[in-house]
Amino acid sequence: MIRILFLFLSFLFACLSGQAQHVAYHGSKHYNMKVNQFRREGALPEGAIIMLGDSHSEYGGDWNRFFPNASKIINRGIIGDDSHGIYSRLDQVLPYKPDKIFFECGINDLSHGWTVDRTFQGIVRIIETIRRRNPDTRLYVQSLLPLNESVGAWKLLRGKEDMIILLNRRLKDYCDRHALRFIDLYTPLLGTHHPRTMRTEYCRDGLHLTVKGYEVWANIIRDYIDE
Prior knowledge:
Layout: H1 2-21, H2 29-41, E1 49-53, H3 55-58, E2 73-77, H4 83-88, E3 100-103, H5 107-111, H6 116-133, E4 138-142, H7 161-177, E5 181-183, H8 211-226
Parallel strand pairs: 1-2, 1-3, 3-4, 4-5
Helix pairs in contact: 6-7
């Protein structure tokens, strides 16, 4: 009897230890809805191009409209997502060996009050995971976008323009040192008379892009989509 009790307690301890080591990521209601949607959609097509990121990617909608001659472009952006959330759902992308990944992340990390260093490390963890698991996938690291507080102010991002610029510099330096393609989305979206501010006609609410803004983005990455 004592032996049976000992074996049961050992089994229970092992189960609890395993659960402690594999804590599931719990995102927002929208995050969980999108992850479940992606799971229902199943396998990605061969040779897919993935737009991986947060609301900037998701609000792009059907990216194929910009590139009618490209392979199937799959939108895997989620509104409000950050580096922890994106890292936690890489298993919905990487097993299918996409041809290209256009990756952007970081603005929500900063809105959470995270430092530039913490945000940078979270982004690098995603980059390194993609490169390690999918060495043949062409990865394009895209910069954070500028803000325009005259169009609309996001309370949790107010005054963080310098952090965005610093994070972009660190990402570019990292990509240069590791032979990665870094795509500057920040500079082409700036206004001509207000440095560090997104051009008004590209910005619909202080943070997110208008249709014209997405046209600029699409033109920036067009050559990379086609190569």
